[in-house]
Amino acid sequence: MSKKKINIFQIERNERYDYLVTKEQPLSYTSECFQKVLINIDYANLDNDMKVLQFTSTLASEGKSTFISNLAYLLGQKGKKVILIDLDLRKPKMNRVFNVTNREGLTDYLSGKVQYETVVRHSEEIGVDFIVGGEKTTSVVNVLEAKKLKELIVRLKSEYDYVLLDTPPVIAVSDALYVAKLADGVIFIVAQNVAKKSLVKEAIQTLKHNNVHIIGTILTQVDLKNGSYGYGYDYSYKYE
User: Fold this and answer.
1) Confidence of residue 225 (pLDDT cuts 50, 70, 90)
2) Do residues 106 and 132 make contact, with C-beta atoms less than 8 angstroms apart?
3) Radius of gyration of the chain (CA)
4) Has residue 15 got a pLDDT over 60?
5) Nearest to 94 by CA among 41, 134, 48, 59
6) pTM of the predicted model as reported, rounded to 2 decimal places
7) In the β-sheet with 52-57, what is the strand arrangement from edge to edge?
8) Are 165 and 182 in contact (CB under 8 A)?
9) Domains of the chain, CATH where assigned
């Protein structure tokens, strides 16, 4: 199948994870372009058999958490039942998106400290459910391979339209590969001038070597200084 690449939006840099441009500026060019991402995801998911979507990148700071939180918000606005799970257990960020402490989260649930009704929270402001990372652990791989995590994903898949998984970069640690076994597909985030092309190729080849289904790629942090929309961050989607 031929690959399709679409430039989808531009945003000014904002280090606040709880600032969602799609919520704060719904009529902006950025928000409009996010809609194109949703269209492409729908196109890739015509049979509605991809409900658990994983998001990863080559290295850190490529805009992954910002992207996934904005996408979750828009899916919720379209009437989809969405849950976002922080599986970047070494450097969790979803608690900052939802302005909560990183407590009573995934690791706490898996260790039996909290129940399902506690670990799954709802954000009235964003309109989606979420699970934060929880108490830090040195046994991240054991957590990601836990039978209880697999059972949790199966349950969420039966209760939600989309289960969105925020996971670590591919090159940094092997966590993303373990999570990929639980996902129906991966959306790969690539930021301009963050990772060298050789590293991006290595990350993608690593995913493919492990039989990971890459749905598409998102190009972030493109300098548009000389473009018609000024300086910002451009996101483009490429369907695989």
Assistant:
1) low
2) yes
3) 17
4) no
5) 134
6) 0.85
7) 4-11, 233-239, 214-220, 185-191, 52-57, 162-166, 82-86, 128-131, 121-123
8) yes
9) 48-217 (3.40.50.300)
